[in-house]
Amino acid sequence: MTATRARRTVPLLVVGALVGMVACSTPTAAPSPSAAGPATRTVTGSVVGTADPTGSDVPTTPSTQLMTGPQQPSGDPLDVQTGLAAPWSVVFVGDTALVSERDTATIRELTPDGTREVGVVDGVQPGGEGGLLGLATYPAGTPTYLYAYVTAADDNRIVRYPLTGSAGGYGLGPVEDVFGGITKNSTHNGGRIAFGPDGMLYVTTGDAQQRDTPQDPNSLNGKILRLTPAGAVPADNPIAGNPMYSLGHRNPQGLAWDSAGQLWAAEFGQDTWDELNRIQPGANYGWPTVEGIAGDSRFVDPVQQWPTDEASPSGITIAGDTIFIANLRGARLRAVPVDDPSGSTEYYDGRYGRLRDVVVAADGTLWILTNNTDGRGDPHDGDDRILRVALTPA
Asked: With CB atoms 3.0 to 4.6 Å apart as the test, which of 27, 221, 329, 386 could cross-link to 312 if both were Cys?
């Protein structure tokens, strides 16, 4: 697990990140922009472990408190790292960035000289959109646990490893199962995980091509789940004994909190509309009964929607008062103002191909992860890569 594999890189210092977090709020209906787009039963799931990680520090995730007001990229990005193989998620441990590679199930550590292998996640069975997907770290302190959302032999599940060693030599300790039983498929696996300001673990799950699951509160699929760090159901979830936090999702893959504590999520539509949603506990976002803005009082409409060929939103992050969204099929970075989420600005349209993830580093720069080597892109020399661009007030 400590073998080194050098990758071509621009000599940049790998910088770290902190994330601004918030508590849950009372459900309220989101505003409904025009349809044209921009301008108590227990769920069965596998829970292993009873003790939370040592320490009470907040999660180590990118901070929205480093800047205020609307933000925009300043100029063209530069390469931080090239030569990655189907990367999916970027997280930070202090000043060190870790990257998941979907099909190799490898965690890679970025160093000033390239990357090195931290370890291979056991039991991953990649196929289609499945494999080693989202990463999260928790808590800040000792030990720090690395959490991973993985497609295994029988299901999608969450595992964690205590990180061993230190920067430049991180390794993986013994694996621990956290939560399982999420139905898998070749597509629609969800897979983003993130810790909220409340210290709870939030998880996006896809419908796994089973259209009855998103509207079934007792199914783990088509949901945003909320768990304790050990994989138990928090006592204050919307339904007692149920990990469901929101339902009616098709394939959400983006999670981020703004400076006011509001949770946002990006979601893949089917043939018509991709979505940006303001998430409220217990709310129903309509899939598969509706797609996009429907004006149906039973469901919460997205705050913004885009044609599917212009978006396919995956990872999101928030810098200051701007939501940045990495788009796959749309091959662009989209910026949405928090205070007016019905509008957006697009950057780098088609220049870097498919974009899988976007994160804010501690120095205030924006890191963008491409995804052109996953079998659906058109790789160029150096793909896949992590790009870095400064942010300035919009």
From this structure: 329
Task: Give burial (CB, 10 Å; 0-12/13-18/19+) of 153.
Answer: exposed
For residues 267 and 306, give the distance between their C-alpha atoms in angstroms, rounded to a whole number: 11
Q: Is the CB of residue 177 less than 8 Å from the CB of residue 48?
A: yes
Under 8 Å between Cβ of 341 and 278: yes
pLDDT per residue of the chain (394 residues) written in tens, 0 to 9: 333 333 333 333 333 332 333 333 333 333 333 344 444 233 434 343 333 333 334 444 444 445 889 999 999 999 999 999 999 999 999 889 999 999 999 999 999 999 999 999 999 999 999 999 999 999 988 889 999 999 999 999 999 999 999 999 999 999 999 999 999 999 999 999 999 999 999 999 999 999 999 999 999 999 999 999 999 999 999 999 999 999 999 999 999 999 999 999 999 999 999 999 999 999 999 999 999 999 999 999 999 999 999 999 999 999 999 999 999 999 999 999 999 999 999 999 999 999 999 999 877 899 999 999 999 999 999 999 999 999 999 9
Report the alpha-carbon distance of residue 355 to residue 90 in Å, rounded.
Answer: 12
Cβ atoms of residues 109 and 97 within 8 Å: yes
What are the DSSP E strand ranges found in 221-352? 223-227, 244-247, 252-257, 263-267, 273-279, 304-307, 313-319, 322-327, 333-337, 345-347
CA atoms of 211 and 194, how far apart (whole Å)? 25
Burial of 162 from C-beta contacts in 10 A (0-12 / 13-18 / 19+): middle
Residue 390 corresponds to which tokens in the numbers above?
A: 């400064």
Identify whether the C-beta of residue 319 lies closer than 8 Å to the C-beta of residue 64: yes
Spatial separation of the C-alpha atoms in residues 221 and 43, rounded to whole Å = 11
The phi, psi pair for 217, rounded to 5°, reads -65, -15
